[in-house]
Design brief:
The protein is α+β, with helices and mostly antiparallel strands. It is built from 17 helices and 23 strands. Helix 5 runs parallel beside helix 7. It comes from Leadbetterella byssophila (strain DSM 17132 / JCM 16389 / KACC 11308 / NBRC 106382 / 4M15).
Length: about 475
């Protein structure tokens, strides 16, 4: 049974995963809070990404750069002059849209109708016009394709114009002395400006990478599709510095590595695909997205880009500080010494998009004699790993169950639940994705065994209490994901 986006949104709110931000004041568009279960799932995804980068690779280390950066950072990166989306308004409905998304939607219609050549031609034409900044012709293309506003059903469009997406603010205690700065629109620049700090202090040798997880902010005009596109979001990025000329080899390696990661966390191969960029960003000489099939279609969850030396070179020119790598191994004889600005391969995944992909994929409704809804999350990612449930609250069963829960909490997240019939308690845990429920009954008091009930199959097995830590601990360990990458 296919879930709709509304099914996902409703389940996420009802079971403590995602809430509208400041909902008691009617919320704030495109801003969300993670609830008690959502924050656990999101943190688990961030932790396994971090381990996959820094623990599995000797030559990748992490940083945590500040959100506020010197404003010239964004001049060097191109964000001040070029971080724009092409926006168009419908004069009748007064609604604003991204011009590229309107055209991409039309291309999807062609593809769904079996006209893939027409879809590809449209995307290619759009990419050419946007790259050449021919905004008048973008509007003409929208009209020529018969694209109308979903609300007014008319094609009474304004001109297409560029809208800068950065949030600005003031720094300084006195208004007259304050200076304009920006909330960072991406985390990558915090890595680039620290390139030499990390390289020298860590004695890093090219090729090496720097990873970071952090908040970024974009003033999205068309923010939609739940946590897929938000104004405040979290990125997990790794910039991998390589010798010029070797970038395409590393680009291909990281494409494959990152696809294996998404499969390892439980996303099925048939719901993942590569999508090469029609329009390359100003810094890239190659770019591909890894897309996941959400209820609203295939969309990007991660981008892999070959950024050349664009960022380091621009920062070097604007800051007047050399950002070059001293390579003692350069040269055929192994003795020649050279300085160069490294090229960069970027892997950039949205934590919120990965959360949404994992949640959508896990949401399962089984029909049959009795309909059952549960979250089929990888056990290592589940917010709660095990729930301990006494059959009844009397005759010492509750105390025994609390004792078991306390011992397991030292190793993985465990909850104790004694409220209501045990069948209802199983259902509660299914709905939040708990992989293992441990039932404590009268037989437990006789021989120190319990029943483990498995979420996905609903099968039950009898296990000695002293084997719980090892049995469940093995299944919920991040190692199960890392060994599959």
């Amino acid at each position: 049974m296919s879930a709709t986006l509304q099914d996902i949104i409703s389940h996420a709110k009802e079971y403590g995963f995602v809430f509208p931000s400041s909902e008691i004041y009617d919320g704030l568009q495109a801003v969300y809070d993670y609830g008690q279960n959502g924050v656990e799932l999101k943190n688990n995804l961030k932790q396994v990404w971090w381990k996959a980068m820094t623990q599995l690779h000797d030559n990748i280390v992490g940083v945590d750069a500040a959100i506020f950066m010197h404003p010239l950072t964004w001049k060097a990166s191109g964000h001040v002059d070029g971080f724009n989306d092409p926006m168009i308004d419908n004069k009748d409905s007064k609604k604003r849209y991204r011009a590229d998304q309107l055209l991409e939607g039309k291309a999807e219609e062609y593809a769904a109708a079996g006209q893939q050549d027409k879809a590809d031609a449209l995307l290619q034409k759009m990419g050419e016009l946007l790259s050449a900044e021919k905004l008048d012709e973008v509007r003409d293309l929208i009209i020529a394709e018969g694209i109308t506003c979903p609300i007014s059903k008319t094609s009474n469009w304004t001109e297409v114009r560029q809208f800068n997406l950065m949030f600005s603010t003031q720094v300084g205690s006195v208004a007259e002395d304050s200076s304009l700065i920006y909330l960072r629109p991406e985390t990558a620049q915090g890595i680039f400006v620290n390139f030499l700090n990390v390289q020298k202090s860590g004695r890093m040798k090219v090729p090496f990478g720097i990873a970071q997880i952090g908040k970024a902010f974009r003033n999205e005009i068309v923010a939609r599709q739940f946590t897929f596109r938000m104004r405040e979001f979290e990125q997990m990025e790794m910039q991998f510095f390589v010798r010029p000329g070797s970038e395409m080899e590393w680009y291909e390696k990281w494409k494959e590595t990152r696809m294996r990661f998404h499969k390892a966390i439980g996303l099925p191969a048939e719901k993942l695909k590569y999508h090469d960029h029609e329009k390359l960003a100003h810094y890239a000489n190659a770019a591909v997205d890894i897309e996941f099939e959400f209820p609203f279609g295939f969309r990007e969850i991660e981008g892999i880009h070959s950024r050349t030396d664009f960022d380091l070179r621009n920062h070097q020119e604007l800051s007047k500080k050399k950002l070059q790598y001293f390579d003692p191994d350069l040269g055929e004889d192994g003795k020649a010494i050279g300085n160069y600005i490294p090229y960069v391969i970027e892997t950039s995944v949205g934590a919120d998009r990965m959360f949404l992909a994992a949640f959508c994929n896990a949401y399962t409704v089984e029909t049959g004699e009795k309909e059952r809804t549960y979250l089929k999350l990888h056990p290592a990612l589940s917010p709660i790993k095990a729930a301990v449930l006494p059959l009844v609250k009397k005759d010492g069963l509750a105390e025994k169950a609390q004792e078991i829960a306390a011992s397991l909490r030292l190793h993985f997240r465990t909850v104790y639940d004694e409220g209501g019939a045990i069948g209802k308690r199983y259902t509660r845990q299914d709905l939040i994705g708990t992989p293992f429920c441990i039932a404590v009954d009268y037989e437990t008091m006789e021989n120190n065994t319990v029943t483990i009930r498995h979420r996905d199959s609903m099968e039950q097995e009898r296990v000695p209490i002293d084997q719980l830590k090892e049995k469940i601990g093995y299944a919920v360990d991040f190692q199960r994901i890392l060994e599959a990458i």
